[in-house]
Write a structure and sequence with these properties.
This protein has two domains: about 55 residues, Orthogonal Bundle (Arc Repressor Mutant, subunit A); about 140 residues, Tetracycline Repressor, domain 2. The chain is built from nine helices and no strands. With about 200 residues, the chain is mainly α. Helix 5 packs across helix 6 and helix 5 crosses helix 9.
Length: about 200
């Protein structure tokens, strides 16, 4: 490995370390307390070091948002698709369930990903080509299209259906996060029944 490659590797590792620290601060203290100083203290660096990687809190938040979607994409991508080789409907349902679980397991991250409360530019919340949030939505859209191609469901516009499914699972995810005492009974069983209903009604 050349000195340039080693330096780039070290920079990427520190950048990831900063984002992981930012995620921890976000989880533990919330967005209002997500500051450069709090992140720096978490990893034993000076705030000046953080500013070498991110211009300000807005820049950090935009990158953290992309990082959050990257983790969601990786989580959904870890589903063993070979188990659903001849069952695209089952794969779509499993993708929906995995999405909901991710949101519930990472509530602060999820709120940041799906609300406009955070003061970032509007462009950061659009599905820009190649962005991680676009890739996350593409999983859902392609899941619907695979079901159509297999003749399992009949819809004219896979993208619109994907948007409707997202709206539905987002609503349940927020209920599970914000109203944990909501009378759903066995939550895992409810989530499965809910996603079954959503897809089976298509």
């Amino acid at each position: 490995m050349s000195s340039i490659e080693r330096r780039d590797k070290e920079k990427n590792e520190l950048r990831t370390k900063i984002l992981e620290a930012a995620k921890e601060v976000l989880f533990e203290k919330g967005f209002d307390n997500l500051t450069m100083r709090a992140i720096a203290e978490r990893i034993d660096y000076s705030p000046t070091t953080i500013y070498l990687y991110f211009r300000n809190k807005t820049d950090l938040t935009e990158n953290l948002l992309e990082y959050a979607f990257e983790q969601l994409v990786n989580t959904i991508g870890s589903i063993d698709q070979s188990m659903y080789a001849k069952n695209p409907v089952g794969l779509l349902k499993e993708g929906l369930i995995t999405y909901i679980r991710y949101g519930v397991d990472h509530p602060h991250f999820y709120r940041m990903m799906t609300t406009s409360i955070i003061e970032i530019s509007n462009n950061s919340l659009t599905l820009k080509e190649g962005s991680m949030n676009e890739k996350a939505f593409a999983f859902l859209e392609s899941g619907v299209q695979n079901c159509v191609d297999a003749g399992a469901i009949e819809v004219k516009d896979s993208r619109s259906i994907a948007s409707m499914l997202w709206a539905a699972i987002h609503g349940l995810t927020m209920i599970l996060i914000d109203i944990p005492q909501f009378p759903l009974g066995d939550k895992d069983a409810f989530v499965k029944a809910y996603t079954d209903m959503l897809v089976d009604k298509l």
